[in-house]
Amino acid sequence: MYNGAGKQNSLMSRIIAVFNQAGGVAKTTLTQNLGYQLAQLGHRVLLIDIDPQASLTIFMGLVPRQLEQTVHNAIVEEQPLPIVEKIHGMDLAPANISLSTAEMQLVNASMRDFRLKEAIEPIQEDYDFILIDCPPSLGLLSYISLVAATHVLVPLETHFKAFEGTGELLKTVATVRNKPNRKLQIAGFVPTKYDARNSQDTRTLAAITEQLAGAGTVFAPIPRSTAFVDASEERMPLAVYEPKHPSVQILKKIAVSLESLQ
């Protein structure tokens, strides 16, 4: 653990669920890269992988099948949250395929909605930011992530079909706000995989900005780029892999904006 290193912050830890029920919206990429940018700003950062696909765990350089302790042990068996320390300046609570059975195992579990929240509480004050990489679904794992979070950050692919599902996503957030987590706030929306040369992308971006601005901040779009794929294959954040890539500055600006979350 960090033993208090990093920027001192009088605010409580910001727990941000990076959530979209659609797959392929760069959710994991955004989690890793925003976590890195926040760490570069001097914050103590924990990433939590609660997706059975374990993409974040892989992107961070671990081999899921080799892990003996994962988030599964914390939420199903109520063991301490396992943490791998200091990967590119961040800590990671990893996942593997064992999480795929968690929803069924938790069906009749006591206080199941609060299992992740309770796993985080003992270590919460050790971090300024905790980013949760949610599964691409509206299932229980996403639900308990929203219950545990203080904020939700929504990546949205700038494609009309991907944008169409936003209504269901907002309904899920509203359901969580209605009872188990009344303080949950929307940190904002991040348009991803944006191609300014594509007229459909520009129209969808305009629609996202117009229709969602009232619900939360709509950040500058992150361009579509193979550099993100290349960086993840090398198990590193984009800013480490290609520091001068133009998306690095966009990610940094989003991270700076997240610092002001209350």
From TrEMBL:
Belongs to the ParA family. Pfam families: AAA_31 (PF13614). It comes from the Bacteria. CDD domains: ParAB_family. Residues 14-186 form the AAA domain. Gene3D superfamilies: P-loop containing nucleotide triphosphate hydrolases. SUPFAM superfamilies: P-loop containing nucleoside triphosphate hydrolases. This is AAA domain-containing protein.
